[in-house]
Amino acid sequence: MTRYRNLVLFVALAALWGSAFMAIKAGLDYFPPVLFAAVRYDVAGVLMLGYAVYVLDDPFPRGRDQWAVVAVGAVLLIAAYHALLFVGETDPAVNSATAAVIVSLSPVLTTGFARAFLPDQRLTLAGVAGLLLGLVGVAVLTGADLGAAVSGGAVAKLLVLAAAAAFALGSVLTRRIDADLPIESMEAWSMLGGALLMHLLSVGLGESVAAAEWTNPTALAALLFLAVGSSAVGFLIYFDLLERLGAVEINLVSYVAPVFAALTGWLFLQEAPTPGTVVGFCLIFGGFLLIKRDAIRDELPRVRRVAFRVRTLFSR
Fold it and tell me: What is the pTM of this model?
């Protein structure tokens, strides 16, 4: 039962986070990028704090370790990841599917950071090869040559890559700090802290609140979906699965999210994935297969048994 519960939550999270790339792209037509990300987490943070107050006896972090986890979440998982991602997606060269595929390098980066910070999750030689293959995939996506290195498209894609790195590092560090902080409390305070940091960054970048189209129906729909669905609900699922599966396993959601990103981008924004997007994703996924080859090999017998039962059922 736990296996199927985790699977359902995993697919739901992939759908919420994959569709978020489309919602970000749509909303950026109406909001300055960092301000858009900040307001998203103003709303999500208030919602989650209210939920934390409702379900917890004490929703406030206590002690250095608990505040350290909140700080990691605010700086890396919320502020750095979303500010870099939103700015990167302002470039026309970065459509929903491309952004999702670049972020799908996150599990490979997570494994690399885990080597440094989580001694029980070390990389083997094949794992290092997988990490390098994933980086080659990103090079294909960015069009890494002398001409593309200075183009707007490549710079924007590298910003999205930096966002993925920030999220991967944050995932590992939250596991490293043994704070015993409830998920609801950690999520709420990280969102509010990250929103504050992004508001400060927005002011520093000279973004104007008056430039946002606050009453546009498309803008409001994108903002509400991101704040409630992708943020409040999505991160609640994420941190729940993080505790159950670990930093490396949960970030595999990044390999399913591009499917939903491409589908929703095509349905709502008429975006079509490019051949480079497909090739880059295949290389990144190949890197993942190298890193997780032992776990996949151990799982194959169970998959074969399930497939055999399904064939037997339908052959009757």
Answer: 0.79
